Amino acid sequence: MTDAPTPTDAPPPTTYAAAGVDVEAGDKAVELMKESVRRAQRPEVLGGLGGFAGLFDAAAIARMTHPILATSTDGVGTKVAIAQALDRHDTIGWDLVGMVVDDIVVCGAEPLFMTDYIATGKVVPERVAAIVSGIAAACAAANVALVGGETAEHPGLLEPDEYDVAGAATGVVERADILTPDRVRAGDVVLALASSGLHSNGYSLVRKVVRDAGWRLDREVPELGRTLGEELLTPTRVYAADLLSLLRADDAEVHALSHVTGGGLAANLARVLPADVLATVDRVSWTPPPVFALVGELGRVPRSDLERTLNQGIGFFAVVPESSAEAAVEHLAARGIPTWVCGSVTSLTDGAPDASVEVVRGAKGVDGGSVQLVGDHPA
């Protein structure tokens, strides 16, 4: 009895590479990112890149009186589409770190370490390494250790040049030092910390405005002083180290912090206020950078929609006693963050808000305080 002949037209063996996953490219990406990751470390980190888990020595935490862990996770939304269109990937990591670690600082915690996740249709080692270089640089600026991550190749789910990024971070704070809404008092003032631009929120709106207007990303825009794409890709300012420095300063007391991200100005401030107060933010105190007016005018976007979607030039709010306002402004300015008094806090028991102005009460499930935006920006 003889073996049956093998058909000459039989399909080739199915391999992982044939399915679209290149393990060798993934290994090369890890090698290319190693040097960047080395610069984003802290003394507490144990081991190196490539382990199944990142290790962080918690001995210092154990010596705290009552340590409370804080954690946050986020991505950068559709801003990645701008990076992909411009084929520039070394800044998107700043956006990711800012979105994650700056949320942790809001409660007064120090972010300690972070992990990242990159999903892509095809692993291009140089592109992955560029993304991680931005993540690592931002972590180093925030004194946060980048202890690990994952790069996943998803052929068929994402196009070869498409990717998305996400991250998670953990921090710690003494229980007695947690910033809670009950610290805020009538008579406090609201400080605005300047953003670096659009940061990483509202890009679905921005991209639609640009698309509907038929503008190209390489268009030179005189009022921006650069191309539209360069402006839209401006990295998010990372505030963590600067705000921790302010929280530890002897001459300034901080009652609340608010990260201005999705939801815009009033909603994010309302989340960190007690239910019995009203914060009034006066638009006359600042002029939003030109990109915000450009989006509004190009898309005929109502002001209320802009303020619910974009940061309008304010990346963070700080609520402080009036006696600390000057010192806080000077402290942050010395660290390169333009800061100004933009509003005040009053008690709702002393009077109702102006009925002719929209009031935002709480947000994202938080039964918080009330916020009104009043006045007009300087011409």
UniProtKB/TrEMBL annotation:
Organism expressing this protein natively: Nostocoides japonicum T1-X7
| One cellular component (GO) term of this entry | cytosol
Matching entries from SUPFAM superfamilies are given as: PurM C-terminal domain-like, PurM N-terminal domain-like
For this UniProt entry, which residues form the secretion signal? none
Protein name in the entry: Phosphoribosylformylglycinamidine cyclo-ligase
User: Which parts of the sequence belong to the PurM-like N-terminal domain?
Assistant: 57-173
Q: What class of enzyme is it?
A: ligase
Q: Where in the cell is it found?
A: Cytoplasm
HAMAP family, sorted: AIRS
Primary localisation category:
cytoplasm
Q: What is its EC number?
A: 6.3.3.1
